[in-house]
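Fold it.
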Amino acid sequence: MKSLNLCFGLIAAALFIACGDDSGSNVSDENSSSSELDLSSGAEPSSSESPQGFSSENAAGSSASGAVTDVFGSKEFYATKAGTIEWTSAHWGNGNARGVSWDGDPDDPTGWTDNRSDGDANPFFKIDGQGVMQMMSSGPRFHINANDNNSTQKQFFKNVEWTGYYRRGEASVGGPDWGGMVVGVRSGNLGHASSGGNNCDASTYYARFRHDGKWDFEKEWKHPDSYYQSMGVIGQQTPLWGGEKLPANRWIGMKYIVYNSTETSVHLELYIDSISGGEPSLAKWEKVGEADDAGADWSGAAYGAATISGCESYNGLVDAKSAILEGHGAVLMRTDGNANNVVQAEYKYVTVREIDPTARLE
């Protein structure tokens, strides 16, 4: 069902290893944070919004400032864990326009592209061959699943740095508040009522730039039971765009970092690039917030479940406070809308790396 072009082996190794308005100038460096970000004033710099393709000759390197960058020129905050494989969306820019439905993406050199979407679309994802992927169903879920039985190479994503750019489509304007730019880590591919599903497989830490203009971290321990926090406050969601909704037709960058900070605690970091117009070389990363889950202070559930049951033997989660220390190794991008065969959102310049949490690059 999925294929891997083995002749890319050495090249791929070199390449991979190692929710407003149209403005936003209230940014500082990536170490800054505030109780509430307001990205609703100022103007974006003039920059090309044309998607760009990348060949296998592009590789991680250094910017003019000396910062380590990924294949697209985005600054890396943590070093890649030695001996691991990096997933990038470079193959979206290979000149081959195509659709992705249930058979994955034959142009993905890793074979890790996995569709677990809700709704019905044909195709579920459109790739323009110039670097952009469009989400076309009412509930798109684009999984990067390196443990699928069809994957020739295997990669368990645990301590992760995810970087990418998102543009909200006009078709999502009537979508639910909880949709938007939503990235999840430590998930499994069977956790969302898919064929052969197992609700305990949904153990996920999400970062969300929501349609309603707020941001949060959401923890899902058993589908559909989840709860959220922001700025260290359980049950809080913080405005990100000055009280306005997530803007449409504007490229927004997210950097989401999740790692085990101790043997019993998980640390989450979230950053935004709101000013570059989707050009990594112009990015100014601002810290949105961070959180720690030590298995003691992240309780409650959106569906009224204060505890969970039936998952301990499967994923080690005893109750709603249990930290997701291991998870199931998959990473996903998702949103929610109210129609099929329309552009809910677009993504480009996506990288997923297994990191060494002890090796901060700044």
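The helical segments are 9-16, 312-315.
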